[in-house]
Design goal:
mainly alpha, 16 helices, disordered N terminus, Growth Hormone, Chain: A
Length: about 400
Amino acid sequence: MTSVATAGEAQRTSFREVWLVTAGHMMTHWYPGTFYLLLPLMAKELDLSFAQIGSILTCQFIAGALSNVPGGMLVDAVHRKGLLMALALSWVGVPYLIMGFTHSYWMLLACAALVGIGNNLWHPTAIPLLAQNYPGRRGLVVSFHAMGGNVGDAIAPLVAGAMLAAMSWREVVVLNVVPGVIASAVILLSLGPLNGGKPSDPAKRRNGGDMIAALRTLLANRTVTMLSIGSSIRAMTAQTLLTFLPVFLSGDLGYSPLWVGACMFTLQAAGFAAAPVAGHISDRMDRRRIIMSSMALTAVVLLFMAVAGRSAAFVLFIAFLGFFLFAIRAVLQAWMLDATPRNMGGTSIGLMFGAQALGAAIGPAAGGALADHYGIMATFYFLAVTIVVANLFIFFTPATAPGEES
C-alpha cells in the first residue's frame, strides 16, 4: 500500500524536528568518532594486540546484533519517541565515560557491550519517524539524518586530536561526555512529547504475539532480508576500516593524533557531502543503481589504497573512500522502509541495524586476525573483497519504488 501524508500532518511536522533529530544523531556518533582516535592510545597503555583491539568493537556490535530487533519491536510498541531518543543518547554516552576510568581490558569489553545495547534505541526510533512524516522525500530526510552521523564522525576525531595535544586520553573521555548530556536534555525538552502517531483505536494495539507474527512476515519479505544481509556486509567493511585506519595511520605512517584526526575528518566529511545528494537522487530514480555504483567504486578505491601501501598516495584516497562508502547508508535505510509496512518501521530498522551490528562485530575481529598474521595491509585487501560481496546481494534484491510501502 502507499502511504500519503495529509496536509495537516505536513503542517504539524515542521523541518525543525528533522534538524533536531539530525543533531541528536550527530551526538550518537560523536562518542564512537572520538573513541576510534583514542583506541590506539588505550591499546598502547594496556598493551593490547591487534586481535584484542578488534574484539572491543566486536563485543559492542555483538551486543547490538542481539538487542536491535527487540529494541525495534519495543520502539513500535512505545509511542513516546522523543523520550526514547533522549534515553538512547544518554545510554550511549555513559559507558564511554566509564572507559576513561578503567585499566582493565575486560571492563572495556563490558562498556562496549553497553554501548551496543543502548545505541539500538536511536535508529529504530528516529529513522522511521522521519520517513513516515515525509513519505515523498524519504531518501532526502533520512539522508539528512545520516548526514548528522557523518558530522559527528568527522568533527569528533578532529576535536579530540586537538585536545590530545594538551591533555591525556582519559581527560578527553571525561570532557567528552558534556556535549552529550546537553544534547540529551535538549532532545528531551524539545521532542519529549513527540509520539510518532498513537493508534486511534486502543483495541487494535498489538500484543507480543502480534509483534512476533509481524516479525515473521517481515523476515519472509525477500527485499527486507537481502537488504539486511547486504547492509550487514557493507557495515563489516566500514567498521573494520574505522577500527584499523587510525591504527595504520598512527603506527605505520607515524602520524600524530592531530593528523590522524584530520584524516578521519576527511573520510567522514566526504560522506557528509555525498549523503544528501545520494538521498535526493534516490527519491527520483532506482535506489539500487545508486547503491551498486557507490559500492563498486568503494571496492576500486580500497584496492588502490592497498596497492599504495605506506606511501603518501594512501592518504589521498581517504576522501574518495568516504565519499562512496558513507553516501549510501541513508539510501539503504530508505529502501528498507519502502519495502516495510508503516507500523513495522521500527522493527525493520532494528532488523537492518541488528544485521549491520553482526557484520560490524565480525569485521574488526577478522581484520585484526589478518593483521596479526599477514600484516595490516592484508586487512585492506579483505575490505575490498567484502564490499564486492555486499554489492552482489544488492544486485539480487527485488526493486521497490521510492515512497512505496508494503
